[in-house]
Amino acid sequence: MDPKSSSPRKPVRTAIFPVAGLGTRFLPATKATPKELLPVLDRPLIQFAIDEARAAGIERMIFVSHPSKSAIERYVREDEELDEALRAKGKDALADNLSDNALSDGEADVRFVMQHEPLGLGHAVLCAAEDVLDGPVAVILPDDLILGEPGCLSEMIAAYESGANGHMVATMQVADDAVKSYGILSVTGRDGQVLMADGMVEKPDPADAPSRQAVVGRYVLDGSIFEELKTQEPGAGGEIQLTDAIARGAERVGLCGFRFSGTRFDCGSKDGMLAAILAYAGEKPEYQQVLGNSADTLLAAE
User: Fold this and answer.
1) Nearest to 258, CA basis, from 7, 12, 31
2) Structural domains in the chain, sorted by start
3) What is the radius of gyration, based on Cα positions, of the chain?
4) Which residues contact 185 (CB under 8 A, 6 or more apart)?
5) pLDDT tens for residues 82-139?
């Protein structure tokens, strides 16, 4: 591990969920339904993210949303009126399931803050600055679904609190023609699942990319990230890029990547969402016949 990491770490107590995006790639479905509530079978994307944060021991969850997406807050919080209505109809099991999914006041401190303009992921994280607890913070992008046990965030926090560098980003190997769609890590060494790095480049040309290690939607960031974001100039796409702010602070606080063990699905895209649904259904015995019938139909059509 890097010498910058020798001092004891403060625990990661806060997770930020940037959920203000309009989900234009899923229109017209997202005209009235936030993309974070689109289901993978019967489980909304946001639920996977919440459960991942729960399993990692997160104490405060901050949702950076938009005024047009009030349905997310309604989903996240307990709904006593709906609970009573279901129980009055004898649907206790369904009411219990909804209660288990919701974030109760006694379980976690839930905050909602608004990002009124689409100024980038870095700006979304900065919107949460006044509400974070002391110490490092996690950032979870719900449309980056990562299936696996233990959860990606749990793995990252364990590595981070064992002494990994000051900013940690989840990474995965991508093909040459895909690097222009990601922030790419400049790798200098490896220690198990941890990749030492000296910087990142946002959406580079493949010829200029420092590696093929792409940054995906999980971060554990030193608390100094908010000071970097306050002075961060717009980058790719004219937006305030989180990766640019992380790269600026890398020399001072350190930087590393983390090769998570789960499988990542880009559920911000239609093909990624379909792949996630099929993978998730494949884990459920009750859907094996349906999947088998679908495979037979495809073979017969060839």
Assistant:
1) 12
2) 11-285 (3.90.550.10)
3) 20
4) 169, 171, 195, 197, 200, 210, 211, 213, 214, 215, 257
5) 988 999 999 989 988 888 888 877 777 999 999 999 899 999 999 999 999 999 999 9
Q: Report the alpha-carbon distance of residue 208 to residue 206 in Å, rounded.
A: 5
What is the number of residues in the chain?
302
Question: Among candidates 260, 222, 258, which has minimal Cα distance to 242?
Answer: 222
Cβ atoms of residues 131 and 248 within 8 Å: no
Quickly tell me which residue has 């941890």 as its tokens: 194
Cβ(135)–Cβ(223) below 8 Å: yes
Task: Give the alpha-carbon dihedral of 31, 265, 156, 223, to 10 degrees.
Answer: -30
Q: How far is CA 91 from CA 47, 87, 97, 102, 286, in A?
A: 21, 5, 10, 17, 22
Q: What is the pLDDT of residue 4?
A: 46
* Angstrom distance (rounded) from CA 20 to CA 153: 21
Reported as a single tens digit per residue, the pLDDT across 211-257 is 999 999 999 999 999 999 998 887 767 788 898 899 888 888 999 99
Of the pLDDT bands very low, low, confident and very high (cuts 50, 70, 90), residue 8 is low
pLDDT score recorded for residue 118? 87
Q: Residue for token digits 């190997």? A: 173
